[in-house]
């Protein structure tokens, strides 16, 4: 039987999370959240008084249940309070687009190639010459002058010309929903600005602590930029020490992701734990009396928050610092800290500050990894008896890596669709090296002003990072280093965690019913996979994807596909990975067969022919597609029957000329520019012709 008594904060936090999820799943329509919370709190107070007077076990149990419901209602209320979109003065509810708007830079300024991006907290908008207050956030992207490190700073008040655009939802099947991601940060609009579209009025940081934290992070960043001779190693250094990933190129990100060591590049529990460990070693002799423990705790907490301050108070660091602060306080007052309660308190405090953290992938993976390490690592460690000190170190490191991977694998598969095969080997080598890199980097920042010592520390820091990079590049070059194309649903993810939990209960409690439940879950997963495979082998359809300025089509037959696209799409791996790959993986297709558009397609299932004007006619599975990308130069005697008539690349054609074709669907693909689509749609509307705009309506699937 499970005993919940030792874990009060776990119950509270889980209830609070349940309330947050209820609010989010319900569509953010809990306008009566205050009344709901007041009702449950009132009922709890009445039941609490009755339980004290009547001493009834049933009333006491009911009081506990209502107490849990109070925290569920509290989660609903806090999330509603932190959600700006339901307020009447929010930017979403404006009926007229503003000509100008004013706001304050409310976030970090991220460096991107050629531009910078940040978040503007709106204050006012100008509509029809009148200024009015407004709520909301806008993601701004501004051109980046290479001669200036930062055009914008936290706290800058800007006057912006133009109206922000609402962030579009995902336009392709299974594509990452960037609009939902930003909505989780209370951002629903964005705007790409030219330098003449905005004016800096003044600087008025709303949070002085965050302002000086960002300023300190920039100063440390300048130190690293000055002392790290290579861009690649400098990028790793800023990620490792400051949590800034702006300077990482795609090859580095891919290497660390595919080897399973990307976590060392995001400042999180690993880094804070290493700093905590060193501090505890140095202060271990000062833990004998309550007074010594108190001062030691103050020193540890001060250093932890100083590190958080240097990193810009990023959410990932705050998670870990809050958790280790709780552990330190518990040790200082002489209480044995229950790590599960400590984790729960840390999660509760963070979610109370921002309930939308529950949607953050880093938040989810971070807590799951720590839970896995706390519970599983000691059990895995005892499976093998190790005698010498070196073997113990590497075995402990291996079991930590294995425990974290087991705990996070289902969620990682759901989000990233891949599994790094050599994660265990990579972590055995890279984690110790990253530890040396972290310590040497922090020491270099602290003592870099001493001429010889500073130079030596930066050299050590540089070469350790160089070794980390080379090892990762080597590991991902090994055969079958990465299993990708794994696509699981949210329901299957929950089932995997349920299976995992039942197996843990079985081994911990030695109760056969838990094994029976685990077997049942495994059967459901297997049955789902079999049914999904059968359905995938029968599937047959084609898709026209929405990719700005490009044309891309996939023809799916069973678990094989042909990708028909222009040379830019086929050569741009990043564009393909973001727009097309998730859809094909979802269909059970790992690698499609690429074919260039407007060339002689050599595939038995697709027939291709050129019209005299070089436009392309495709025939596939008794369906015909005519792709018009050049002006028509021929006149047909009678209307040419085609199933799908596709207008691409701003083709110069009068809508009246379309009468030469007898088509079922008229499609404007995403290679057409905005002005062309608007002009053509207006002409088609005038003629009463039905059309489908891929760039606006999303991918065409049939």
TrEMBL record:
Residues 36-196 form the DUF4131 domain. The chain crosses the membrane at residues 7-26, 32-50, 57-78, 262-282, 294-310, 340-357, 363-381, 393-415, 421-439, 446-466, 486-507, 514-531. GO terms for cellular component: plasma membrane. It is found in: Cell membrane. Residues 240-509 form the ComEC/Rec2-related protein domain. It comes from the Bacteria. Pfam families: Competence (PF03772), DUF4131 (PF13567). Keywords: Cell membrane, Membrane, Transmembrane, Transmembrane helix. It is a multi-pass membrane protein. Signal peptide: none annotated. InterPro entries: ComEC_N (IPR004477), Competence_DNA_uptake (IPR052159), DUF4131 (IPR025405). This is ComEC family competence protein. It comes from Pontibacter arcticus.
């Amino acid at each position: 039987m499970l005993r919940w008594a030792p874990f009060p904060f776990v119950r509270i936090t889980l209830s609070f999370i349940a309330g947050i999820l209820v609010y989010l799943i319900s569509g953010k329509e809990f306008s009566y959240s205050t009344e709901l919370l007041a009702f449950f709190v009132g009922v709890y107070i009445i039941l609490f008084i009755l339980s004290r007077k009547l001493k009834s076990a049933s009333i006491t149990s009911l009081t506990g249940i209502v107490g849990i419901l109070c925290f569920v209602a509290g989660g609903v209320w806090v999330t509603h309070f932190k959600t700006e979109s339901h307020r009447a003065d929010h930017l979403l509810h404006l009926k007229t687009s503003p000509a100008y708007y004013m706001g304050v830079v409310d976030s970090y300024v991220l460096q991107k190639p050629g531009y910078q991006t940040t978040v503007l907290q709106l204050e006012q908008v100008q509509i029809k010459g009148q200024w009015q207050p407004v709520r909301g956030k806008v993601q701004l992207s501004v051109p980046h002058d290479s001669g200036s490190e930062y055009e914008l700073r936290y706290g800058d008040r800007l006057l912006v010309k133009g109206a922000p655009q609402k962030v579009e939802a995902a336009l392709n099947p299974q594509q990452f929903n960037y609009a939902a991601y930003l909505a989780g940060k209370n951002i629903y609009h964005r705007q790409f600005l030219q330098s003449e579209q905005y004016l800096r009025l003044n600087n008025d940081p709303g949070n002085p602590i965050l302002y000086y934290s960002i300023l300190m992070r920039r100063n440390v960043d300048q130190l690293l930029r000055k002392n790290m001779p290579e861009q690649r190693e400098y990028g790793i250094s800023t990620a490792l020490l400051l949590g800034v990933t702006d300077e990482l190129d795609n090859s580095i990100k891919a290497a660390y992701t595919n080897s399973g060591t990307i976590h060392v590049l995001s400042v999180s529990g690993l880094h804070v734990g290493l700093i905590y460990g060193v501090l505890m070693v140095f202060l271990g002799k000062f833990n004998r009396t309550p007074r010594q423990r108190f001062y030691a705790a103050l020193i540890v907490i001060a250093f932890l928050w100083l590190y958080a301050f240097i990193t810009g108070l990023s959410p990932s660091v705050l998670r870990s610092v809050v958790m280790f602060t709780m552990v330190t306080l518990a040790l200082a007052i002489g209480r044995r800290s229950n790590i599960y309660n400590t984790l729960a308190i840390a999660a509760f405090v963070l979610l109370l500050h921002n309930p939308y953290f529950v949607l953050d992938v880093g938040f989810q993976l971070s807590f799951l990894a720590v839970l896995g390490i706390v519970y599983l690592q000691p059990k895995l460690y005892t499976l093998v008896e190790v005698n010498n000190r070196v073997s113990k170190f590497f075995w402990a490191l291996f079991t930590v890596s294995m425990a974290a991977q087991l705990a996070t694998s289902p969620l990682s598969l759901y989000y990233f669709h891949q599994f790094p095969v050599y994660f265990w080997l990579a972590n055995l080598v890279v984690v110790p090296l990253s530890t040396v890199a972290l310590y040497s980097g922090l020491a270099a920042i602290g003592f870099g002003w001493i001429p010889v010592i500073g130079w030596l520390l930066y050299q050590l820091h540089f070469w350790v990072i160089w070794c980390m990079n080379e090892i990762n590049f080597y590991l991902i070059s090994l055969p079958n280093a990465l299993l990708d194309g794994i696509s699981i649903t949210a329901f299957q993810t929950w089932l995997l965690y349920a299976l995992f939990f039942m197996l843990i209960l079985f081994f911990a409690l030695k109760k056969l019913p838990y094994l029976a439940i685990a077997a049942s879950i495994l059967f459901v997963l297997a049955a789902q996979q079999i049914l999904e495979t059968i359905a995938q082998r029968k599937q047959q359809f084609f898709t026209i994807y929405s990719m700005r300025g490009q044309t891309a089509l996939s023809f799916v037959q069973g678990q094989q596909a042909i990708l028909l696209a222009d040379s830019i799409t086929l050569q741009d791996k990043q564009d393909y990975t973001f727009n097309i790959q998730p859809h094909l993986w979802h269909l059970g297709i790992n690698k499609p067969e690429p074919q260039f558009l407007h060339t002689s397609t050599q595939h038995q299932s697709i027939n291709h022919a050129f019209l005299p004007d070089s436009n392309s006619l495709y025939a596939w599975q008794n369906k015909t597609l005519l792709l018009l990308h050049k002006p028509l130069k021929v006149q047909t005697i009678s209307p040419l029957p085609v199933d799908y008539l596709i207008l691409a690349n701003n083709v110069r054609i009068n809508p009246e000329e379309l009468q030469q074709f007898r088509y079922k669907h008229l499609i404007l693909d995403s290679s057409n520019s905005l002005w062309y689509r608007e002009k053509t749609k207006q002409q088609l509307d005038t003629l009463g012709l039905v059309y489908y705009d891929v760039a606006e309506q999303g991918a065409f699937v049939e």
